[in-house]
Every structure is written in structure tokens, then in C-alpha cells.
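Sat 14:20. Reprocessing the chain from the morning session after the first attempt stalled halfway. Input below, unchanged.
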Amino acid sequence: MREAMTAAAVHKQYNDSVMAFQRQIADAGLRVKFSQEADIFFRACALGVWGRDGGALTPRHVEYYNAVYSRGNPVPSILFWELSTAVGEYPGFQPPSFFNRMRACDKVSGTSLARKFTDLTTLMILLFGAVDGQVSEAEAAFARHCADELGSLCAKDGLTAGSPPLNPSEFITRRPAPETPSGAAQAQAEAAPAKEEDPAPAPTVAELLAELDSLCGLDRVKADVKSLINLIKVRRLRESHGLPVPPMSLHLVFMGNPGTGKTTVARLLAKIYHTIGVLSKGQLVEVDRSGLVAGFVGQTAIKTGEAVEKALGGVLFIDEAYALANQENANDFGREAIEVLLKSMEDHRDDLIVIAAGYTELMGQFIHANPGLESRFNKYFYFDDYNRDQLMEIFLSMCEKNGYTVAEGAKAAAAERFRVLYEERDENFGNARDVRNQFERAVARQADRVAQLEHPSKEDLMTLTPEDLAEPDHA
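Finished this time. C-alpha cells:
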């Protein structure tokens, strides 16, 4: 048995391999889909291989899981009990949705993306299997099963190009990164970058504020964030001149309807706090009531403590925080979670920021549930609903990001849809979430339409027409 890799080393090997493979994808739409879904797929593979031997999970498994993310994608923050549950409920290996599109590209273009992805999947599963410093027979068998599943799909399409399939048995009892030349080493060399890339420099405050300004709408929030940063800067200057500074809480309340960008702004604020030296790490850990409250006496404190531990050095973002304050049941475990949060905010006041978020009219229940909350949460950011023009802007941005163009007639149809959506909004109005739903329905209709074409062109694959934006028929 060799010494197990560190989580940082796992992240580097995973990120380098995934990003190198992504650069080989010529089709822009497929490249976007791969970047959005690859991390989710590979984390599922980790769950599968860790359930092979029936051994107990360890904190190292949690570190490995949270290291499985590629550049530009959210960093996972799973807790030990969540990982244990996920491994136990693993449904079995399923090829990712983008694999079908890879095979289609290979058939049309004569490339070997599907076979190379099969090799990449095998390598990643073996990497995850080496969490304890070795790959067991059962873990290698799981890697072989997954490779066979993908390989059989390739065989159905007559796709045999690419490197010879990897043999997972070669990796038993050692980490997946052989030191001597082999088929696996060759495949890994093909997937690795030509030269090691320098880590991306940390963003500056100006760059983060520019990213904030690029968000659609949110004028009041943008002004509040900049005012808060100015306040912190001036406090630092006063301290440097030996001047007194009054006590100030940096914990925040985000008030607004769903889909108004609260999580996005919280993530940016975490980075800004880190850049200006308020926080040591700057990560965002997002939870809701289910991530803090357990069903039995004593477990809520443990669960909440785990979430706080994960957020130390960054921001703990509590969505729908009002659900912790159950006014109808004085014995609700949500109150225990609030007590633990208050103590943690005091114990770690120099390196933990808590942001509580939820509907404007309901957040008062949370703030008034405990006198300690009122004193610690004294800054409120209000997230207004997006208007119809902003909804349209968000829709066009989603189209551009995902490789779709909108025909002129379709733009008019979409604009009318968002006008009606905004003017007839009620308590269920989802803002950007409703826009995403509209976008996904349009993409689904376009796929149904294009699939009927005998030889669709690239323009056909990219264009959304008025037909794709039409209102669905209701029985």
C-alpha cells in the first residue's frame, strides 16, 4: 500500500485531466454541456466506487469528494453524514447525457471523443478508489464495469477509434498514476496538458466588483455592497492611524423573492471579503433548514456544527432561514440550530460571516426569534424582482452562454412572454428561475423539431424559432 494522495493532489489531477479533455471538444455546445455536467457525473462515480468494498467511510473520503470540481464550477461542500447517505443510496452507474452527443460527433466527424472519455472515466474511478492508498479488486471491477458500459455503447455505433481500452486490473494495490510507460500512462499523458499551467491569479476587488456590475438589475444591492466595502476600508484606515472604530457586525440579511441572485451575490461577497482580508479563505457554504436541523435531540447541534466548521474562513449562506424559527412549536429543533449559530458567530467572529436569506415578509420571523439575532444581523440587502426587460436580458444571456441564437420572431415572442410573466406575477413568481424554465422548455421544443430534420445544419442546431417559444397547449 502506498501513502494516499492529498485532497489537493486529487483536485489537481482531476482538474488537469478534465480541462485537458474539454479542450479537445470542438463542438461549442457539447463543450458547454460537458463543462456543466462532468463534475456531477464524476462525483457520482466516486460514490459508486466507495461502496464497493463495504468499508467505512473516513474524513479523507469527504475531502476527496469535495476536491472533485473543475475550474470555473462550484466547489462542493458535502458533510460526512451526507456523503454516507449518498454512498448508501447510489443507484448504479449511468452514462452521462452528454455521452450520446459525443458518440454522435464521433460518427459525423470521425473523432474519438467517446473512447477517450471512456479512458478518462476509468482513470478517474481508479483515482477515487485510491483514497486509502490502494485500489482493491472490487474497485477495479467497478471501473471495468463502467468502462464496459460505455464501451458497449461505442461498439453499437461502430466506434473503435482511439487508444486501446484501459485495463483497471493493472492498477490494483497502487494509485492510478503508473510510473512506468503503459497503455494507461499513454492515455493519461494524452489527457494531461502539454505543460503545467500556472494557477489563475486571485481576482482583485476591482475585478470582483466588475463581475457584480455585470449582473442584470440589482441596482440597490450593488450600491449596498460598494457602500459596505467602503465602510470596511475606512475602518481599516482608522485602525492604521490609531483611531477608534465602533464595533460592527458584517453578518447580513438578504431579503427578496427566489431567483433574484441572492446566492450569486453571496458568493461574490465571500470572495470580496477574502480579497480585502476580512476572511481567510472566502468559500461559500450554502445550507437550508435540512442542512442544519436533525430529527433527534442532540443531533442538530452536531449537524449545525459541521456546517459551521465547513464554512470557517468563508461565508455560511442560510437559504430560507425563516424556516428555522417555527413560531408554532416552542420545542422545534430549529431553535437549537439558532443557538448553535449564535455561539459560533461569537466564537469565530473574526473568520466567519453568516448570511441569512429568504422572502422579505418572512425574514422578520427569523430575526425576531432570538434577541441575539437582532444584534448580529443589522444590515439588510433588498433584492427587487426583475422587470420584464431584465427577464428578457437574462434569457438572451442564457442563450448566448449555451450556444443558441434567437431568431427575430422568436425574440418578439419571448419579450411578450416575459411581459405577461412579469405583469401577472404572484407569490410564486420565480424571477430568473422562471426564465431558466422558459429557456429549458424552448430548448426541448427545438430539439424535438430539429430531430425531425434529415440533415440539420449547424445553424439549425443553434437557432430558436418562434415555434420553439410558443405557449404549450394545455388540455
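The chain is about 55% helix and 5% strand.
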